[in-house]
């Protein structure tokens, strides 16, 4: 596949990572494992030391997680931006089958996950799991709107809408409505209103003042969207608070977990997304930049979760997944990082929002001592939508045809038993809704541009001069520099037909045909006209 993604130097970096081992502690005896899913926000593949030996940011806890489990070198988020990826993780279904065809939701947007749709949380809850979400939701919840007022449904709310909500009223259709017994966190990204914590169906402190925050704390930078905030709310307190809540939750569930009632904790962190706001003890720790400091604090948060599992004797029978929702954002200040020799996108082209791999080729680590061989790696092309089918496979659950339509089980890969690709192909999606399809070493992008924020930007003069599609051989050109669509028209035609089939079938996995929620427009910039005689 792509052997140079995991060079010998990286193997050495993993080898020297330290591994703390709990000694003389009771072990959990539940037949079914506890499941923890840690989702970082805008963390680049190149930010994790065990994935990028040349990286300059210390990530000892992620490295430890990778050394003790499996490192995936070709994993992808289903979208190059936030809300869509989270939809895919929770539902096992590609985000572009939902009404959200581009962009992201806002902090006041209504619930995106369809009523009646099975989620990984509702599935696990039905099979005896205690379920909790602690962190950044960003999948919509139904706030009580003031009489005659409204908010934008499928995008970030407008400045004149931020006061259209009764923040004292109960919130409906939040995480508790899709299978989570307990929720604590923030409604969306930390640069979106309201700036206050939510517990289950209510805010913990009313947002009675208006605030905004710099994108990078301590520097003159673009401010976050101004709007309602709790008086004492500060971005630098959010990551430590979420981490403490997660550690406390694991402690509270320990006795039940050791006596046959496992738990599922979904922990979507707010970091290192903007506002880039490391807490006081982490400021300056990296010697590189505030972003690097925030990555190090994110690594600390992951370490706290691993620590409590070991202290409580739960590590052996807990599956820990760690991923990022998309690639690194330009807000990290790539030029500043590059001056120190650090590249968050590793060798990939582009960054967050793009159809290029820098937008969606993400870190993905999985540890399960009871089943996964320590120090193992996989170059399977996988997607974060695979989480739901993996959980079902672990528990021996047969999923109905109308659930997890784009989710393939990773269990054979994790157990070292996969002898072929688990996906026929994987679909990528950018911020403007552009598509790409990856099969083996071939990646076809159904647009002439980045589909996102890097050059060539969509519908610019530069993009309009380029071929309507881009085809890359990822085994020879991981940086996506040489478009070979003209030399391999038969591959282009075949992959377009496969993408059309995936859309028409309403799924990419075996099963009965399903309906997409809305009509799917494959071509966001200009259509591709296949040359005659090239269909095979």
TrEMBL record:
Residues 1-30 form the signal peptide. InterPro entries: Alkaline_phosphatase_core_sf (IPR017850), Sulfatase (IPR050738), Sulfatase_CS (IPR024607), Sulfatase_N (IPR000917). The keyword Hydrolase applies. The keyword Chloroplast does not apply. GO terms for molecular function: arylsulfatase activity; metal ion binding. It comes from the Bacteria. Residues 215-236, 505-536 are annotated as: Disordered. Keywords: Calcium, Hydrolase, Metal-binding, Signal. Residues 33-397 form the Sulfatase N-terminal domain. It holds the Pfam family Sulfatase. SUPFAM superfamilies: Alkaline phosphatase-like. Belongs to the sulfatase family. This is Sulfatase.
